[in-house]
Write a structure and sequence with these properties.
The chain is of the alpha/beta class and 398 residues long. It is 41% helix and 12% strand.
């Protein structure tokens, strides 16, 4: 979901229809997200660079509508996701809006947060199951909701500038948008370490951990976009993938991470980290202990449960239960206040220690929601890549 630095603006929920077939190049815009057609390539361009392209509810709805229409448009062969500006693909959800809607004491609408997450998680699943190649250029900052838009794509491209992460525990929240699905399936306990500490990873780390596929130097991105207009996605990416890929720094940390983060008891994990002879492990313990005790405890339980679930949809439905329970509590509002609203970086968590977080409190976050449950459709898919449609001679030379 969130980004943890300042968001400069919040705009309304303007939805927009996707471009229709016809001209080879067209643009439809609601200012926050640009929907562009260029021959067989359909583009989604996140357009809030002043806010690191943070997602509003209107952007989520616009993207979902476009994807639905493009899925049935035979002229669309590939969908491309990029972000405007030179700082981020997407730094997450607009947490200022989430803060305002969670504040019932000041007239907020908690149901809007529920609607936001229901639409966002539905979009995450839609991207995962999309029948056409969906290419995400994960250049520069990709956090929270940005991970949900890109790391479930069929073709995920990173660069030397990429920084990927789920910073939710910093604001008293938990990784969502399928983040617990992705992190629970990384090699060893690397995902556990990243989720609890809210640390970021490099592009090559993202490939090693299964959140990305291809490394393309940033200087070649424009050429890649041009190639996507002329040839199938897999071929265009292969043509631009670097022959030499930098090492993944996190892989060098596997030994102490796997040893320290094993199990389901967070105090035991903290104790191992504190006693480790590895300085990075001790630093990780400090980072975790600065987070919301409720958030990190629920995050660990979310990861362990997600590992046992069968597909992304089941995990997103679990995350929805947890998200609604978390935002109804104290720490999310307090975390956003401290990080983004007042910016004092001094949240007062309640409860304030790990020992004060009971097992019953943790389990309550996962209880069924009854009529409020998010029920995502199940789509039968194979393990093969999305169908690469044949390009006609006209399209290939457009």
């Amino acid at each position: 979901m969130p980004r943890t630095d300042s968001i400069d603006s919040h705009s309304g929920e303007n939805t927009v229809a996707a471009p229709t077939a016809g001209s080879d190049a067209s643009v439809v815009t609601d200012d926050e997200v640009l929907l562009q057609r260029d021959g067989p390539l359909a583009r989604i361009i996140l357009n809030r660079p002043q806010a690191l392209n943070a997602l509003t509810h209107g952007m989520i709805r616009s993207i979902a509508t476009a994807l639905t229409q493009w899925a049935d448009d035979p002229a669309v062969h590939t969908v491309l996701l990029t972000g405007n500006g030179d700082r981020a693909l997407c730094a997450g959800g607009d947490i200022v809006s989430i803060f305002r809607d969670a504040r019932t004491d000041t007239g907020g609408d908690p149901d809007e947060n529920a609607r936001f997450w229901a639409d966002e998680y539905t979009l995450n699943a839609q991207i995962k199951r999309y029948a056409k190649p969906f290419v995400a250029l994960m250049d520069r900052i990709v956090l929270g909701g940005g991970v949900g838009l890109s790391a479930h794509a069929s073709h995920r491209v990173v660069t030397e500038r990429t920084r990927v992460g789920m910073p939710e525990t910093t604001i008293g929240f938990v990784p969502d948008v399928g983040g617990t699905f992705l992190y629970s399936r990384t090699p060893g306990e690397l995902g556990t370490h990243l989720a609890l500490t809210a640390a970021t990873m490099t592009g090559t780390d993202a490939i090693a951990l299964g959140l990305a596929d291809s490394f393309v130097e940033s200087a070649r991105l424009d050429s890649l976009v041009d190639a996507l207009k002329r040839m199938p996605a897999a071929a265009a990416i292969a043509q631009h993938t670097s022959s030499t890929v930098p090492p993944a720094p996190l892989l060098a940390e596997c030994a102490w991470i796997d040893e320290c983060y094993a199990g389901t008891d967070l105090p035991t994990i903290i104790d191992r980290l504190q006693k480790s002879p590895v300085a990075a492990a001790r630093e990780a313990s400090v980072a975790i202990l600065a987070k919301s005790p409720t958030a990190v405890t629920v995050t660990l339980e979310s990861l362990r449960r997600a590992r046992a679930l069968g597909n992304l949809e089941e995990v997103l439905e679990q995350e929805y239960r947890v998200s609604l329970r978390m935002v109804a509590g104290h720490d999310v509002i307090e975390g956003i206040r401290a990080q983004v609203i007042d910016k004092d970086r001094n949240p007062l968590w309640h409860p304030s220690t790990l020992d004060a977080v009971s097992g019953a409190d943790v389990q309550a976050h996962f209880a069924p929601l009854g009529k409020r449950e998010l029920r995502l459709p199940r789509v039968q898919t194979s393990d093969n890549e999305p169908h690469e449609q044949e390009f006609t001679e006209r399209e290939a030379t457009a």
